[in-house]
Design brief:
seven-stranded mixed β-sheet; alpha/beta; 7 strands; 4 helices; 23% helix; N-acetyltransferase domain-containing protein; 25% strand; globular; Aminopeptidase
C-alpha cells in the first residue's frame, strides 16, 4: 500500500473528525455567481489551505438551497469528495444529492464513509435522494443502501425543506 492509499484510507476511517462550519462567510452575490459562470477557472479550490480535520461540514451556500449542507473530505490539502444533504428534523427524513469524488479519489471508499457518518450524526432518519440514479451509479447506491431506512430511494422533499411546495 502506498502512502497516498494509506492517507485516503485513514480519512475514510476518521469520519468522526469533522470540522463544522456554521456560516459561509463569502456568500456569493448574483455578480459573484455570474463571474463564476463566465470564468469558472478563476474560482478553483485553494489547495494551499489544509482544514483542521479531514472532514468538513459546511452550508451549501446557495440561496435557492437554504438549509442544505455539504460534507466534504480532504486528503492532506486536496479536496477529495463532497456530497450535499439536508435533514428535516420534524419528519425525520434526510436527502443526499450529488455525491462526487474528485479525480484520483474515485472508488476509495470516501463516499460510503461520508454517507455512513451522516447516518451516525442523524440517527433515526430515513435517507432518500431527490432525483433518480444514473445507471452507472446504481451499483454504488445498491451497496450503500443495505439496511438503511429509506434506502436512498427517490423521494420529493417535504414542506419543511421546500416550504413553497406546501
Amino acid at each position: 500500500m502506498t502512502n497516498r492509499e494509506a492517507a485516503i484510507r485513514a480519512v475514510a476511517r476518521r469520519t468522526d473528525h469533522v470540522y463544522w462550519v456554521r456560516e459561509w462567510p463569502d456568500k456569493p452575490t448574483w455578480r459573484d455567481r455570474l463571474r463564476r459562470w463566465m470564468d469558472p477557472a478563476s474560482y478553483e479550490f485553494d489547495r494551499t489551505v489544509t482544514p483542521p480535520e479531514p472532514w468538513v461540514d459546511r452550508p451549501a451556500g446557495y440561496y435557492e438551497r437554504t438549509g442544505w449542507r455539504i460534507r466534504a473530505a480532504y486528503v492532506r490539502s486536496d479536496l477529495a469528495f463532497e456530497v450535499e444533504y439536508v435533514v428535516c428534523n420534524p419528519c425525520k427524513i434526510g436527502w443526499v444529492e450529488a455525491p462526487h469524488s474528485y479525480e484520483g479519489y474515485k472508488r476509495c471508499g470516501l463516499a460510503s464513509a461520508a454517507l455512513r457518518s451522516l447516518r451516525q450524526v442523524y440517527p433515526g432518519v430515513q435517507w432518500h435522494t431527490g432525483g433518480g440514479h444514473f445507471r452507472d451509479a446504481e451499483p454504488f447506491w445498491s451497496s450503500v443502501s443495505v439496511d438503511v431506512p429509506g434506502g436512498y430511494t427517490q423521494r420529493g422533499r417535504c414542506r419543511h425543506v421546500e416550504p413553497w411546495r406546501a
